[in-house]
Amino acid sequence: MRIDVVKFLFVGSTRTRSHFFAAAQKTGIVEFIPSDPKTHVQLSKETQQYQEAIKILRHYPPITQEIKRDLHLAKTLVHTILVTKATLDKAEESKLRLEQEIARVQPFGDFSLSQIHALEQTMQRRVRFYEGKTIKHLAKVDEALITINSIDGIDYFIGIKDEPIFHQDLLQVHVRANAQTLKKELHTLEDSILLKINELKELQKYSWLMHYALTHEINASHLGFATEHASALLDDTLFAIEGWVPRNKVQEVEDFTNSMHVMCEEVIIEPNQTIPTYLENKGLPRVGEDLVHVFDTPSHTDKDPSIWILLAFALFFSMIVGDGGYGLIFLITALFCKYKITGMKAVGKRFTTLVVVLGVACVFWGLLMNSFFGVSFPPDSFLGSHSLMNSMVEQKAAYHMQAHDDVYTKWVTQYPELQAASGPKAFIALGNELGTTNNPAAVFQGNVLFELALFVGACHLILGMLRYCKRRPANIGWVLFMVGAYFYAPLYLNATSLINFCFHVPKIRGGEFGLELLCCGAILAVIIALFEQGLKGLLELLTSIQLLSDTLSYLRIYALGLAGAIVAATTNELGGSLPVLLAVVVLILAHGVNIVLSVMGGIIHGLRLNYLEWYHYSFDGGGKKFQPLQLFIHD
To answer: Mean pLDDT across the stretch 453-464?
Structure first.
């Protein structure tokens, strides 16, 4: 939940300033306001060095840590780590240059530079090395040019001449040693690189100490920043500073300041000040808070959307994955990590809790939709008979059979044997026996999934508008508009909706009622907007277009869920036609790829529907997270 923050003025003796801020950091409930709002905490050089050292050690396999709280040792070790890494980087650069030099020199063969120098003195001429493309026939460029080798379309020459030979297709190669000598240098350099790598691997045991020292430096930087920005009063005999305090922590702050002999008084918040947002959640809402901060921080006037985001995301994710078997994999994996991995940090624990929630949601949705690893249970089985999907498909079939409408006429014309069906179950069973993808059961299932996506989307948007209706009363009209549009759509499209075959709303009368409600809702929204905004309220009509596009955006749930279901079914059909061992391999690989794709779609689009579509109607955002002066502790 979001808790309002209030502004306090703290005044105390300069002699107790350092002690006060140190104690406030341990308490961790006050966000002090610097005298210059544009200033920020500047990380010290030591902090940056510890961060760099931690990044370096992270590249090496973890080993048993030496738990030492020795800051003097940490300063020595961070210098050693950085110097060793710099030496290693320099050696690796030298190795790369040396390998390139060997590649350039090796085609000239095994030669002795000392003998070449002796030959130069004897002939009174210079010996130079050249290379060029074979197709250029560069040997004819100069009679002093002698071909030595030809490799991969490149010719290699030596030129015995005092002056260098210049040609646009000829490149001089500078040689300081032969390939054998350079390879010896390379081996020596590789030994040096290996030595430095081993040194860093050994230093990895001080990774905990680097984190501990980094935490200490960060705490010192934050404490110093708060202390320095306290204003001096009465010739520096008093200090004063303002700070934000959550309203539910006021009594705790007053008790703390009284014990420190520091005066605190609530003061008026200035109009141009940015008020921080304080969210206080535990359990599942805290997991939802992590999802909220992925996109933005709520404003200080927003309602906390944490639990709403978590529940909606779990629903959308499960509908996109669309398979209870995949959910079981998520659930088992998360529970294993939760209870078997020790020493997990708070963020890790909340992440595993999120995966547990998503796994449970997927299993539940899989039961409702009768899908486990792409396999559906028979309608007469326990799970099949209690499936929401089978129930809705049967109700849809019963509706069309009773109405003898154009849908029923189409199916019995295409498949005359369906006329023998005595009821909806028999109608669906005969449809399944047809063995085609275009049978009544398959088409009805697709229709149900399609409308469920729209129904869930409409409900999601309506709930968002209802949450915000006190601050935006025009939302009441648009809620009526959405409900009316849902009733009117079947009549306008000449389609059958779940409100017809599940809730038995007559199509014509329901459509007429929906049209009236739709028009009344839009008019009510515009009238309220006119009272609030004047003539600008006429632009409120454009919200109807926004609502239509946002509602249709939820069809991505249907499309992604259908794609995953098709891949799973195709995988099972392919596996059934292969030998057992090969089928197992194919099933594991194909279902694995499908799981990865489904998870990607579930995360991206499950969050997107909250952040983009739903936030339109129930979220301002743009807030500043409450960041009190607190003591960070590295366990």
So the answer is: 94
**Alpha-carbon gap, residue 98 to 330, rounded angstroms:** 50
The model's pLDDT over 104-114, given as tens digits with 9 standing for 90+, comes to: 888 888 888 88
Q: Cβ contacts of residue 16 below 8 Å, gap of 6+?
A: 260, 261, 262
* Run of H or E residues at 158: strand 154-160
pLDDT in tens, 117-127: 888 788 888 88
Nearest to 222 by CA among 48, 45, 41, 47: 41
Helix (H, G, I), strand (E, B) or coil at 205: helix
Contact present, 480 and 521 (Cβ < 8 Å): yes
pLDDT of residue 232: 86
Predicted local confidence at residue 573, as pLDDT = 87
Please answer whether residues 70 and 137 qualify as being in contact, where contact means their C-beta atoms are separated by less than 8 angstroms: no
Is pLDDT at 455 greater than 90 in this prediction?
Answer: yes
pTM for this model (two decimals): 0.83
Q: What is the CA radius of gyration of the chain?
A: 37
For 302, the token pair is 């927003």
Can you read off the two tokens belonging to residue 602?
């579930």
**Which residues touch 376 (CB under 8 Å, ≥6 apart)?**
370, 384
366 vs 328, 363, 376, 380, CA distance in Å? Answer: 10, 5, 10, 17
Distance in angstroms (rounded) separating the CA atoms of residues 209 and 214: 8
φ, ψ dihedrals at 374, nearest 5°: 80, 5
d(CA 202, CA 57): 10
